[in-house]
Design brief:
Helix content: over 70%
Shape: elongated
Strand content: under 5%
Number of helices: 5
Oligomer: single chain
Radius of gyration: 16 Å
Structural class: mainly alpha
Largest sheet: none
């Protein structure tokens, strides 16, 4: 498998999820316990987060240079870490908290694992002389 494949797949998945939430904010709001999706202010906030995911996902999926993908991965991982912190605080005492934090944390860890996989794979390719970036 090409070292960039996991990063690109996660980028496409992130962008697709972001696009879905942009169209239907309740995809994010209901499972996280933040609202029904009928609240205009929450819909606006959910769309803002979703559009961030669309942009960072597209960056992960399409960046042509290793450094650009690394920067996109750092931004994605940072966004997931920020979501974990913010949702953790906002959902204190709510039953949805554990599930929501699991999703944000696992997603960030997947992006981190993909970035590490790509970095290690690139090093091996250079060492073997098969680097075709």
């Amino acid at each position: 498998m090409n070292p960039t494949t996991p990063t690109r797949i996660l980028g496409v998945a992130t962008a697709a999820y972001g696009a879905a939430v942009t169209v239907r904010p309740d995809i994010l709001l209901r499972p996280s316990g933040l609202g029904t999706g009928a609240e205009p202010e929450l819909r606006t906030l959910a769309r803002s987060v979703a559009l961030r995911d669309v942009i960072s996902g597209i960056a992960l999926a399409t960046a042509s240079r290793p450094r650009a993908r690394a920067v996109a991965a750092v931004m994605r991982i940072g966004s997931d870490a920020a979501d974990t912190i913010v949702f953790g605080h906002a959902l204190k005492g709510r039953p949805e908290r554990g599930k929501t934090l699991a999703v944000t944390s696992v997603w960030g860890l997947l992006c981190l694992a993909a970035a590490v996989y790509e970095h290690r794979g690139s090093i091996r390719m250079v060492a073997r002389g098969t680097d075709r970036r």
